[in-house]
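Per your request, structure below.
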């Protein structure tokens, strides 16, 4: 594969053949006339849906006429493509409505993904999938945003259990669902959960861009901030879906200020993650790695992290569906730890010392005595271990 340096080539020989075919089709390197194993189209379709790249594949395969054995596959891609188009149009309308609602109440919303990302990276909202709207607001406006959503019929998913206000840094968004509209919103106060620092909302707002797909102004991240967010988000999920790497490929095709991006990633100790994303995109989508990116690719660590992520593509791993198999969960925990800088690892171990809500469940105490969970935590943890309960 063509990369900046042969030393950046990854071992990908164990990728499923159907996934290799998907990659070749997306890259435009393969057509049916060049030969595709037609015996495993069910697996091909399943992988395209899992990796959320079926809109792009639909555009590659929609005009086939001489392969009647593919009718079922093409029909399924067509149905999913149309369904996704309707979903994105629906989300687009709700995105504009929420932007207007928040702006009228002086709340500054930054839309992280959804239709604005599809339009920016692919030029067409139908070419990327999205199941919800992710909106970043200033932390001090979080309660105000929630009150507005509840007044509009949204219902909060109360899945976060917290002790001593640890939700502020252990988590990074609340989830809301509108039962009538069928829309899910995630209101973020951080781009990612702790540990790790990240740009302030004020910085992100200063570098924001305005989308052109709505009549009312809708704002989203600047290009370098978007790379930071997409890279850290994808890495946190093990790049277990090709869609996230395809986003990186599409973004790199645009003009980025690589000097500023390097300093941004360096400031927030994510250079290794930026390098990981570029190496993966280069190996899988043949993303061109220019000389300006070299600072992100230095050393062995970015390549090692990229090779570790291939594990998530060699099998169909879904980290969002419980229960995650024990071996997969264990591998993912180790990989997340390997992504951290030394300082982030220190913050992580400090966070382990902070009480968890499982401590409250193990030994319920009145709220005014919750501070006692700090000295009690080691004993509560040992008690759970003795009873066969795992630490969070």
């Amino acid at each position: 594969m063509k990369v900046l340096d042969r030393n950046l080539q990854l071992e990908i020989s164990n990728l499923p053949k159907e996934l290799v075919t998907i990659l070749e089709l997306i890259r435009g390197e393969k057509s049916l006339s060049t030969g595709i194993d037609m015996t495993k189209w069910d697996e091909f379709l399943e992988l395209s849906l899992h990796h959320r790249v079926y809109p792009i594949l639909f555009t590659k395969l929609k005009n086939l006429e001489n392969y009647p054995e593919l009718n079922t596959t093409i029909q399924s891609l067509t149905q999913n493509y149309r369904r996704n188009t309707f979903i994105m149009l629906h989300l687009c309308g709700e995105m504009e409505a929420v932007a207007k609602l928040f702006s009228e109440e002086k709340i500054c919303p930054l839309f992280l993904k959804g239709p604005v990302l599809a339009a920016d990276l692919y030029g067409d909202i139908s070419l990327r999938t999205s199941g919800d709207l992710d909106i970043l607001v200033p932390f001090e406006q979080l309660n105000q945003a929630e009150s507005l959503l509840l007044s509009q019929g949204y219902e909060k998913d109360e899945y976060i259990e917290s002790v001593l206000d640890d939700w502020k840094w252990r988590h990074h968004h609340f989830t809301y669902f509108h039962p009538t509209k069928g829309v899910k919103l995630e209101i973020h106060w951080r781009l990612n959960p702790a540990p790790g620092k990240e740009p302030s909302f004020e910085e992100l707002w200063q570098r924001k861009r305005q989308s052109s797909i709505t009549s009312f102004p809708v704002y989203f991240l600047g290009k370098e901030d978007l790379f930071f967010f997409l890279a850290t988000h994808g890495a946190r999920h093990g790049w277990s879906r090709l869609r996230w790497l395809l986003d990186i490929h599409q973004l790199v095709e645009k003009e980025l200020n690589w000097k500023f991006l390097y300093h941004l990633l360096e400031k927030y100790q994510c250079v290794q993650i930026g390098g990981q994303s570029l190496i993966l995109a280069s190996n899988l989508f043949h993303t061109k790695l220019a000389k300006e990116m070299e600072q992100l690719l230095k050393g062995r660590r970015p390549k090692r992290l990229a090779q570790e992520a291939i594990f998530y593509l060699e099998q169909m791993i879904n980290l969002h569906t419980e229960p995650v198999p024990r071996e997969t969960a264990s591998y993912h925990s180790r990989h997340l730890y390997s992504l951290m800088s030394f300082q982030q690892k220190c913050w992580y171990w400090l966070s382990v010392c902070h009480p968890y809500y499982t401590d409250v469940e193990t030994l319920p105490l009145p709220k005014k005595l919750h501070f006692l969970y700090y000295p009690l935590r080691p004993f509560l943890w040992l008690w759970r271990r003795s009873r066969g309960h795992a630490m969070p």
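The mean pLDDT is 90.

Regards,
D.
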